Fold:
Amino acid sequence: MNAEEFREFGKATVDYIADYLENIRDRQVLPSVEPGYIRALLPDETPEEPEQWQDVLKDVERVIMPGVTHWHSPQFHAYYPTANSYPAIIGELLSAGIGCVGLNWMASPACTELEVAMMDWLGKLLDLPKEFLNCSDGPGGGVIQGSASESTLLALLAAKDRTVRRIKKERPDWDEGMIKAKLVAYSSDQSNSSVEKAGILGSMTMRLLPADEKCSFRGSTLREAMEKDKKQGLIPCCVIATLGTTGTCAFDHLVELGPICIQNNVWLHVDAAYAGAAFICPEFRHHMAGVEYADSFTFNPHKWLLVNSDCSAMWVKNSNDFVNAFKVDRIYLAHQKQGLAPDFRNWQISLGRRFRSLKLWFVLRLYGASGLRKHIRKQVALAQTFEKLVVADPRFELVLNSCMGLVCFRVKGPDSITKKLHEALSQSHRIYASAATYDGSCMIRFAVCSRFTEEKDILYSWKEICDQTERLISLEQNGHGEILFQKKCIGRMLRIQQSYN
Ligand SMILES: *Cc1c(COP(=O)(O)O)cnc(C)c1O
Structure:
């Protein structure tokens, strides 16, 4: 492909993306394909001769789109949002165009330096303690990771290294392997699956302690578990607290957990993957009270801050903990400006790194702080609109008060109807929400995800939920419920048709 064709292909693809996103409301949010569907649509072998880009682009609609779950559909309410915005898409494109590998400062100075600057912009926007910022002249700083999972793992591994160094000083007679075997990490049973996985990957015992009735991890629970472990000769090493849990968007009590970590020389990592974006709005910052106790803090601009994946923002108070733990030198990695700017390869798992700060720069400049706050506030308001609909309907109940863009609700009565409602919604493919359990009972998590979601979409989803619930309740009460419901629908359709004629 030459540059002329690239221009045409690129412009046609940008047009395709814009059409796709602007008309996404018209697509069914969940696909109807079966496993293996794509194999039937593709040849068995790589084409021997090059094809035309027009043919390939045409096949996106034929082969790919039928199997896409439309995460940016205004009817997508499952999990948490994944970010998507035009400035970020262009940032990704430019990053691919430059195509550098910023493994150290010299490998592409702009790649490191823009990231340092953007992490400071972002840290200030959240009002993080200044010790976390690159510009604080201390050992703190921010870096872009691929995911919150990676950030948690890195925090755990840095905590492990820091603790082993400390204990070796205190007990020079102890063998390193023996110290490592005694280390324990703590989190709550509400933390993300990636926290448990970090324990597996980092070979550290991970205690998932019970959260309180509001799903928050409390100091008394942590203290008790640590004391018990210490009595057994174990060594507390790392605590992972969550601000905005995946299940119910609960906030762990940093003000209680923090001092216990300090007293015990334990690394406190804060995982705010989803809800952290809301801290750009002053009215939500009370949720991060106690963040000053943390050694590291992560949130994902790629979830709720309009920066396409991957962009997980991580700050550490002392980056020497990373460098001490992860630095491996080779002659080809050395450069003349070493020590004058961070070499981010020592702050992450991989050696190579993409120019991810470009898309962050584009989003921060093209939305501005005010545009980003507007986005967060709008989505919170839409969740509150949905919450009001639930509260006003006697068939439903809230499981917990809505928090940020998340509403957890259920059908009153036995779990079976809520379970069936979730199944019915998944089968109808018109809206997509996920099921979860709280306190042993079944609930539906309704998250406002797409930046295209408007009040009319919330009303559409609510109507779908109500229609399905009505059908299930009448089925439950009456074996002929299904038939009655169908008759009612046909009646309604006839009336609509008549009113058109
Ligand atoms: C989504 C989520 C994660 C996982 O984020 P990745 O970037 O996909 O690893 C971790 N923690 C919490 C609280 C989350 O909501």
User: Anything to note?
Assistant: The CA atoms of residues 407 and 446 lie 5 Å apart. The first helix runs from residue 3 to 22. Residues 80, 147-149, 192, 194, 242, 244-246, 271, 273-274, 300, 312 surround pyridoxal-5'-phosphate (CB under 6 Å). The two ends are 55 Å apart (CA to CA).
